């Protein structure tokens, strides 16, 4: 069907989405790019004007064997057939998928189209999508978007696939991979390949020391299945350091040139998988590819700094009942994930030096949270990139440096959050954070997006919420 084809990459996450027909576009058009100031080419054709854009910015995904190979753009007639939906998706900046706004500091691998490219596609679709003369084609002057090629120096995969627990809707499971290296090395890139995408909420790699080997051996497979339960971090007596993450929308990641995460012989990588089982429950054997460099290469050591902010989301207007009480939300977390994790909502408030009074004005339609992190490091901190994470009620995300000062920097601005297209964002130029500088992370949610609204606090499940971020910096 015409409009099903143009669900585009959203289907790659294998979570339910609606295809767009013309009659469904009115509400979304409210966020459309204003193109009145842009002069589109006269008499645009596919081969002369649109094909260079498609090949540079779309074909990396929309081709056979790639993430959107089910909707290939290699045949001009196929592209012309869905021209109206292409116009809708690019004018509304839904495709190519790129959540940060233009207010950000410059970011690497920006997949967004320019205003003139958007205007060109819109004018072509409005003109009836003429193909034109193939001889008029000339490649785009820039390389466009392509996947980062990760060299496979080490592959992590289970000997036996894991089937999530039958009685859970959110299953956190950890798997151990002792590092088969005999000398220090650096992880300089990775690619995460989930086997069953529709179950994969996230994957995180933690690095732990050999002193935990006996504890891991005791826990691994103790219930007759690979791995062990691990809500929170690794489920071990020591959580470990985070070296890689994957969420829907993340492709292969290469760390900044000349830097990486140091690994040592005897250390163990723990893969924490969060399986979201609302739509399917299948056996899964994810694969992680690591790119490595020897320690003699003189690389600088990277460090991931985690950030958390409170989550206090009331029921929307008109929703009433016990499920709308905060105490009920805390009890629910305890029942699902344990007493320790039920303490996190209050601990997030304490860490951010806040109280519930700070969130008294939150509504279900517009719930906000933030947390300030003053830098405690006396030496300047070099930051290469940041990440933001929320769940499906998320509406917007921001991370700012010194937000109340004249020299403030907007490190990450996502005005229209989309759970299916999360990513790691690296700066074109590193950012320096000095002693006393403040990082502020802010989240906004809309509880009306829930099918069964209730009071929502920080929780591990997909139907719970988080306000989480990371900073990738050089280790002090």
Characterize the structure shown.
It is a single chain. The chain is an alpha+beta fold and 476 residues long. It contains nine helices and 20 strands. Strands 1, 3, 7, 8, 10, 11, 14, 17 and 20 form a nine-stranded mixed β-sheet that branches. Helix 2 crosses helix 5 and helix 4 packs antiparallel against helix 5. The chain is globular and about 65 Å long.
Secondary structure: elements and pairs:
Elements (H helix, E strand, L loop, with lengths): L1 H4 L40 H12 L18 H6 L1 H9 L23 H12 L27 E4 L12 E9 L6 E9 L6 E9 L4 H7 L8 E2 L11 E6 L6 E2 L4 E5 L4 E9 L10 E8 L5 E9 L3 E2 L12 H12 L1 H4 L1 H8 L15 E8 L6 E9 L4 E8 L7 E6 L9 E10 L4 E8 L10 E2 L10 E7 L2
Parallel strand pairs: 8-11
Antiparallel strand pairs: 1-10, 2-5, 2-9, 3-7, 3-8, 3-10, 4-6, 4-9, 11-20, 12-19, 13-18, 14-17, 14-20, 15-16, 15-18
Helix pairs in contact: 2-5, 4-5
| SSE string | HHHHHEEEEHEEEEEEEEHHHEEEEEEEE
Strand content: 25-35%
**Which class of secondary structure composition applies to the elements?**
alpha+beta
Please tally the helical runs, counting DSSP H or I stretches of 4 or more residues: 9
Protein traits:
about 475 residues; alpha+beta; 9-stranded mixed β-sheet; 5-stranded antiparallel β-sheet; globular
In short:
The protein has 476 residues and is an alpha+beta fold.
